[in-house]
Amino acid sequence: MTPNGSPKTTNRINPHQIYYTMKDYKNYYQIKSTPDQVYLGLTNHLTIHLWSGEETVMEEKEGTEFSMFEGSISGKIIELEAGKKIVQQWYFGEEAEESIVTFLLHPKNNNTSLELRHSNIPDEAFDDIVEGWNDVYMDRLMEFYDE
Fold this sequence. Notes:
The protein is an alpha+beta fold.
C-alpha cells in the first residue's frame, strides 16, 4: 500500500512476454487474544476449522502445502516463527511471480495487532482477494476471538 492507502501496483512481464499487473495489499487488524493464540488460529487445522467453519488441510511445518475454504485458498508454508510470524505462498494458477502472504503478530495490551501483507496479487483477482480478507477471513477470525 502507498502512504495514502491505495494498493501498490507493480508491472511485470511473464516468460511468455505477456504484460500483466500485480498488486500488493497491507492492512492491520486488532484481535482480542494473545499473539500465541492468534498464531494457533492461523496454523492449527482444528482451530482454523472452528473459526472458518470449513475443512482445512494444514500442518504447522515449513515447506508443507495447505488448503482452506474448500480449496479456494491453497499454497505452501514458507516460514513459521511461533507467536510472531507466518509466511505463506498462495497459488494463483500459472503466475510467474509468487504471491506471498505474511502475518506479523504484534502484542498490544493483552491483545494482538495482526499486520497482514499480501504481495503479487493478480490484478484481476485483487478486489475479490481484498474483499475475502476483510469480509470473510479476518471477519471470522476476529469474531472467533471476540467470543
